[in-house]
Amino acid sequence: MASGQKIPARMTAIAISEPGGPRVLKPETRDVPLPGPGEILIKVHAAGVNRPDVQQRKGAYPPPPGASDLPGLEVSGEVAALGDEISRWRIGDRVCALTPGGGYAEYARVHAGSVLPLPAGFTHTEAAAVPENYFTVWHNVFERGGLKKGETLLVHGGSSGIGTTAIQLASAFGAYVITTAGSQEKCDACLKLGADRAINYREQDFVAAVKEATEGRGANVILDMVGGDYIQRNYEAAAVEGRIVQIAVQAGAVASADFSKVMVKRLTHTGSTLRPRSVEFKAAIAAALEAQIWPLLGTRKVAPVMDMIYPLTDAWRAHERMEEGDHIGKIVLDVG
Ligand SMILES: NC(=O)c1ccc[n+]([C@@H]2O[C@H](COP(=O)([O-])OP(=O)(O)OC[C@H]3O[C@@H](n4cnc5c(N)ncnc54)[C@H](OP(=O)(O)O)[C@@H]3O)[C@@H](O)[C@H]2O)c1
C-alpha cells in the first residue's frame, strides 16, 4: 500500500447503532479501512445522503456481502492511499466515488473503477452529490430504458435526487420530459431544471396529463420509484413499445395490474438496483459518465441540485430532513 501524509489508525464514522429512527445514527470511532488490491482509500470531505441510506438505517436494506456496515453510498475527497494494482490515481487526486457503503466516515475504501475525478470547478459538497444519482440514472434511463433524442420520458418523483438528475440529463440529450411531484413548489423547481411538463400528482391524474401532453401517444420511457398502483397506471401512461424502468417500490412491491397492456402495447417492464452490481459493471458506467456527462458537469449544463448540507455528526438531522420529504434535490454531509 502506498500512502502520502500520515493516515491515522482511527477515524470518526456514523454507525447505525440499531435499526430505527434518525437518532440511531451515532458517531463512533472505527479503524481506518485499508485498501486492498484494485482499491483506493479516500480522505472524505463530503458524503451524499440517499433514500437507500434511510432504508438501511431502518433495517430494510442490508449492505451486500463484503461491504462496510456503515451507511453512505457516495463520497468526494482526496486519494489518501493506494492499494496494489492502481495505475490511474495518485495520492492527493481530488475525486468523487460510488461506495458500496461506508461513506459516512472520515475515510472510505473504494474500488478504483468506481472513482471519477472531481468535475471541473466543483466543490467537494457538490461532487459528493453526483455519483449515486448519475450512475443510477445513466444506467436505468439511457442503457436499460434506451431513451433517445425526441422521445418522451416520464420521471416520477421529479424533485428527488434521482428525479432532478433524470430531468436534467434527459433534457440535455433532447428528450421531452414530463415529471410528477407532490407540491406546486416542487413542480416549479422541476420546470426550472428543464422539465417540459410537471404534474402535481396530488391534484391531477398523471395518466390523463401524460396523454394530454403527448397528444394521446404516451411516454416512451418511464422511470418509476413508486410502484404500488403506479404499476398499472404506468402501463396506461406508456406509449406503444414503451419501456418502464422500476428503481424502487415506495408505495408497495406487490400490485395487481392488467398485463394485456404489456402485450397490446408491446411494453418492456424492467428494473435494477445499483449497489450489489459488480465492480466491472460500475467501472463501465463510470467510463460512460466520464465521457458523456463530465463535460456537461464541467460547463454546468447539468449540476446537482443542492438542498441542505449538515456536518457529519449531524447525519441524523439529514435523515430527518429526508424523511420529512420537503427537500428538493440533494442532502449532503460535510465531513471536513
Ligand atoms: N434502484 C437503484 O439502483 C436506486 C438507486 C438510488 C436510489 N433509488 C431509489 O430512488 C428513489 C429516489 O431516491 P432519492 O435518494 O433521490 O430519494 P428522495 O430524494 O428522498 O426522493 C424520494 C421521492 O419519492 C417520491 N415519493 C415517495 N413516495 C411517493 C408516492 N407514494 N407517490 C409519489 N411519489 C412518491 C417523493 O416525491 P414527493 O416528495 O413529490 O411526494 C420524493 O421525490 C428512492 O426510492 C431510492 O430508494 C434506487
From TrEMBL:
Q: Which Pfam families match?
A: ADH_N (PF08240), ADH_zinc_N (PF00107)
SUPFAM superfamilies documented for this protein: GroES-like, NAD(P)-binding Rossmann-fold domains
Per the UniProt record, the source organism is Mesorhizobium salmacidum
Q: Known CDD domains for this protein?
A: p53_inducible_oxidoreductase
Asked if the keyword Transcription regulation belongs to this entry, the reply reads no
Keyword Oxidoreductase on entry: yes
Name the record gives this protein: NAD(P)H-quinone oxidoreductase
Q: Which UniProt keywords apply?
A: NADP, Oxidoreductase
* Gene3D superfamilies referenced in this protein's UniProt entry, alphabetically: Medium-chain alcohol dehydrogenases, catalytic domain (3.90.180.10), NAD(P)-binding Rossmann-like Domain (3.40.50.720)
User: Where is the Enoyl reductase (ER) domain positioned along the sequence?
Assistant: 20-333
Upper lineage is: Bacteria, Pseudomonadati, Pseudomonadota, Alphaproteobacteria, Hyphomicrobiales
